[in-house]
Design a protein that fits this description.
46% of the residues lie in helices and 23% in strands. With 186 residues, it is an alpha+beta fold. A hairpin with a 5-residue loop joins strand 2 and strand 3. The longest helix has 18 residues. The relative contact order is 0.14.
Length: 186
């Protein structure tokens, strides 16, 4: 039985591992590994740990997570200053990929100021843990007065899209590679 709890500093490496294990096929390639962890886990755990929750297994190891930036303006400022330069050192195309991610979230920031990333290892999926992680985060965001949250899911990820729609998200925009989904909280 796994439990949802707030993120703790001891979870950082397990969160990174979940990020990679649930990522693309080339996630463990050295440059791609750094890119993925900088863009999709490290910013959140290092700058907004109070907006992060983990799914912990019986040994209290993170086997899933939900990570969130509650304010796009603050996220963009810190990411551009502290993370984007490190990603750019990995290569031109990875730098462009990171920049596009920041710009994409910014395009929807007025309506959806917060954005999230959620990933769960395969062995723990389809057991209600995704909803429990979402419940923990949305309660925290509502408590803070954050009006709405968004995410981008892969266009071909039908399982993910179905989960988000069932949870109450709406499809905001279908893009060539993904679908922007938003959830009003207040």
């Amino acid at each position: 039985m796994a439990t949802v709890r707030p993120y703790e500093a001891k979870d950082k490496e397990n969160v990174r591992e979940v990020c990679l294990a649930t990522g693309p096929k080339d996630a463990y390639e050295p440059k791609k590994r750094v890119f993925l962890t900088l863009c999709f886990s490290d910013y959140y755990t290092e700058n907004e740990p109070d907006n992060c929750f983990v799914l912990a297994d019986d040994a209290d190891n993170a086997v899933g997570y939900i990570l969130c930036a509650e304010n796009y303006g603050r996220y963009a400022q810190v990411f551009r200053r502290d993370y984007l330069p490190r990603v750019r050192k990995l290569g031109f195309f990875l730098g462009i990929g990171a920049w596009v991610n920041v710009v994409l979230h910014g395009h929807y920031a007025k309506q959806y100021p917060a954005h999230l990333h959620i990933d769960i290892l395969d062995a723990f999926q389809r057991q209600g843990y995704g909803s429990r992680l979402m419940d923990a985060l949305t309660a925290k965001l509502k408590e803070k007065g954050v009006p709405a949250v968004m995410l981008v899911v892969g266009r071909g990820n039908q399982k993910g899209r179905s989960f988000y729609l069932k949870y109450g998200f709406e499809e905001v925009k279908v893009l060539p590679g993904g679908v922007v989904m938003g959830l009003k909280l207040l």
